[in-house]
């Protein structure tokens, strides 16, 4: 994990898919909280919504209800996703700025500024 943190690797987490595939037995076993404790940036995702029969809204709800994440955590994960986007740097920064404005996080900087 030290290498991942140093390299600023962003972990894409798909709780429903992880439950369905048996990676975790129940949502409370998911390592999301461990990753957050280690300051590893994560995002919440759907994997394949047509197979998992889930939406991003469902995944966020599961993260809140099953893992105890809050609105601040979800906002951080949205910004993490923008930081990890395969975009030219000016477009990425514009996206991050727009998301911060929309999410009310102009002053929030998250793990990596």
Describe the structure.
The structure is a single chain. By secondary structure, the protein is mainly alpha-helical. The chain has one domain. The protein has helices spanning 2-6, 15-20, 32-37, 49-52, 56-67, 71-84, 89-103; strands spanning 11-13, 42-44. A two-stranded parallel sheet has the order 1-2. α6 (71-84) runs antiparallel to α7.
Condensed summary:
This protein has helices at residues 2-6, 15-20, 32-37, 49-52, 56-67, 71-84, 89-103; strands spanning 11-13, 42-44.
Top keywords for this entry?
single chain, 113 residues, mainly alpha, two-stranded parallel sheet, 7 helices
Helix content: 40-55%
User: What low-confidence regions span 5 or more consecutive residues with pLDDT below 50?
Assistant: none
> What general outline do the C-alpha atoms trace?
globular
Rg, alpha carbons = 14 Å
Structural class designation: mainly alpha
Helices and strands, with pairings:
Layout: H1 2-6, E1 11-13, H2 15-20, H3 32-37, E2 42-44, H4 49-52, H5 56-67, H6 71-84, H7 89-103
Parallel strand pairs: 1-2
Helix pairs in contact: 6-7
């Amino acid at each position: 994990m030290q290498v991942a943190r140093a390299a600023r690797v962003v972990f894409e987490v798909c709780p429903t898919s992880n439950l369905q595939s048996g990676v975790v037995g129940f949502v409370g076993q998911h390592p999301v909280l461990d990753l957050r404790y280690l300051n590893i940036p994560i995002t919440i995702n759907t994997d394949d919504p047509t197979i998992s029969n889930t939406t991003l809204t469902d995944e966020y709800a599961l993260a809140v209800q099953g893992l105890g994440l809050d609105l601040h955590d979800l906002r951080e994960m949205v910004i993490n996703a923008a930081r990890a986007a395969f975009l030219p740097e000016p477009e990425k920064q514009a996206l991050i700025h727009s998301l911060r404005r929309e999410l009310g996080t102009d002053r929030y900087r998250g793990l990596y500024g």
